[in-house]
Specification:
single chain, 167 residues, alpha+beta, Trna Endonuclease, Chain: A, domain 1, 2 domains, 3-stranded antiparallel sheet, 4 helices, 10 strands, elongated
Length: 167
């Protein structure tokens, strides 16, 4: 178990995903690539399929980018994807967006302005951009607060009516 309760997983070359606890419980000898979360492992499986069917040219796991020399600051992305036309993009799968990540993101964008970065979140079985997830989350929160406010106003009106009827 890594930080934020993410379960570490290993994905084999054929795309089979094993969780860390299954490997330990059954004492399995599994060769593959380790990922810090189930979502990263599932996105790796998706990239394997896209490469197999010719949707992408290639991809690399856990590429390192030096953001600053002194003191040395490095950013390890989840994936570096090469599209069919030769363009490249960085993909990072997030469960929790930390302040450290936000700082490294700004440094990355300053040092590599031509290399786009996709920050994705897994929601309802699909990967969506973090910005879209944040918008949807804030819209749900606004709707919940609106309902709560209307319910509180209704209780106040009922209390006023009961008070008037008792006079």
């Amino acid at each position: 178990m890594s930080k934020y309760n993410a379960k570490k997983v290993i994905v084999t070359e054929d795309g089979t995903l094993f969780t860390e606890w299954v490997i330990e419980k059954y004492n399995l000898d599994v060769k593959g690539i380790w990922f810090d979360s189930m979502s990263e492992g599932e996105y790796y499986q998706l990239l394997l399929q896209q490469k197999k069917y010719g949707d992408i040219k290639d991809f690399e796991c856990h590429p390192r980018f030096v953001l600053q020399e002194k003191p040395k600051v490095t950013y390890i992305a989840d994936f570096l994807v090469t599209e069919l036309n030769g363009s490249r993009r960085v993909v990072d799968i997030k469960g929790v967006e930390t302040s450290t990540f936000r700082v490294k993101l700004k440094l990355f964008q300053a040092k590599y302005p031509t290399l786009p970065i996709d920050i994705l979140v897994k929601k309802c079985g699909e990967f969506i951009p973090l910005a879209q997830y944040k918008k949807e989350k804030s819209a749900r929160k606004r709707a919940a607060n609106s309902l709560k406010k209307r319910a509180d106003e209704g209780r106040k009106q009922n209390a006023n009516q009961i008070y008037r009827n008792q006079k």
